[in-house]
Write a structure and sequence with these properties.
disordered N terminus, 249 residues, 11 helices, 0% strand
Amino acid sequence: MSDPEAGAPSKASFPTTRWSRVAAAGDPADPEARAALEDLCRAYWYPLYALVRRKGYGPDEAADLTQEYFARLLDTGLLARADRSKGRFRAFLRTDCGFFLSHEAERGRARKRGGGIVSLSIDARDAEGRYLREPADPGLTPDRLFDRAWAVGLLDSVLERLAGEYADSGRAAQFEALQVVLSEGARSVSYATIAARLGTTEGAVQAAVQRLRRRYREVLREQVAATLDDPDEAAVDDELRDLFAALGG
């Protein structure tokens, strides 16, 4: 049993939040602006929806406000003017969406729901179901819920990328058997059980798990670095601490 090469590229397309992509999304003259914005929507739609819902809006209005917020980002060129020195794109979105909601409250939602909103190709059908599964802890404020949803989404994207890498190298079944050690711990399923499933030895499974964990850490750091303006080692470490703090909160 062997693992896919650590650096093997995945053919799957994963949302990126690099500031260069943000700038493209914020420049109406850029022909890739709409595609860039939709990439950002896919990565951040649910965290923002959860933030809006936790602020007291109902499901339909929260969905409309979230889509309207992203349309505003495109129409106003705000992304192109975003201060990259702030470093963390999620913090920019979280804060700016709060300003947007305050403004909407002042306007009293004078515009009819859905009117004049540019439609984006985002599938948000499961958003409310996901929201209803969120912890009901009153200490989980809108901002903290946004960070938690961001963290869960980022970890999901890491698993998706790893699944793509293993599938591309013809080892989808191996990843399916091994991934449990990433989400549920080293001994949630015994190595003997995994070895029997894959037709190999416990020693081979142990080595494969070590390689999978190493690749998981590499991809996680890459995904986190992609959200920072200056992703040096210290900045990535700080963001990882925030990620796991958000999950623990």
